[in-house]
Amino acid sequence: MRGIEREERCGFDSLEALNAWFDGWTNTLEASGFIVWEYDLPDWAARVGRMGQVVFNAKEAVRVGSSPWVPEQLELFA
């Protein structure tokens, strides 16, 4: 995904991707008061990785909301 510029921020394209990325750290993050921030931005202002990670231009993002993170239990066997 290249480097991260000063005006860029990191995130995920879905709650599923966020939960998968932090699998194994869910209790620690929840206990520390981890907050999920949601943004709306044009597609051209973001780069998306294979696992749903996103690097986006903060100047182009509009905050939609925020909430305490409630981790999902990932399904081990589908």
Describe this structure in words.
With 78 residues, this protein is α+β, with helices and mostly antiparallel strands. The protein has one domain (8-68). The protein is built from 2 helices and 5 strands, in the order βααββββ. The chain has helices spanning 15-21, 26-31; strands spanning 8-12, 35-40, 46-48, 53-57, 62-68. The strands form 2 sheets. It has a 3-stranded antiparallel beta sheet with strand order 1-4-3. A two-stranded antiparallel sheet has the order 2-5. Strand 3 and strand 4 form a beta hairpin.
- What is the overall pLDDT average? 87
- What count of structural domains? 1
Q: How helical, in percent, are the residues?
A: 10-25%
Low-confidence stretches: none
Rg calculated over all Cα atoms: 13 Å
- Derived from helix and strand composition plus strand pairing, the structural class reads alpha+beta
Give the termini separation.
30 Å
Main sheet: strand order:
1-4-3
Our estimate of the beta-strand percent is 25-35%
The ordered H/E elements are EHHEEEE
Extended strand count = 5
- Overall spatial form: globular
What is the gist of this entry?
The chain has about 80 residues and is an alpha+beta fold. It has one domain.
Descriptors:
about 15% helix, two-stranded antiparallel sheet, alpha+beta, 3-stranded antiparallel β-sheet, 2 helices, about 80 residues
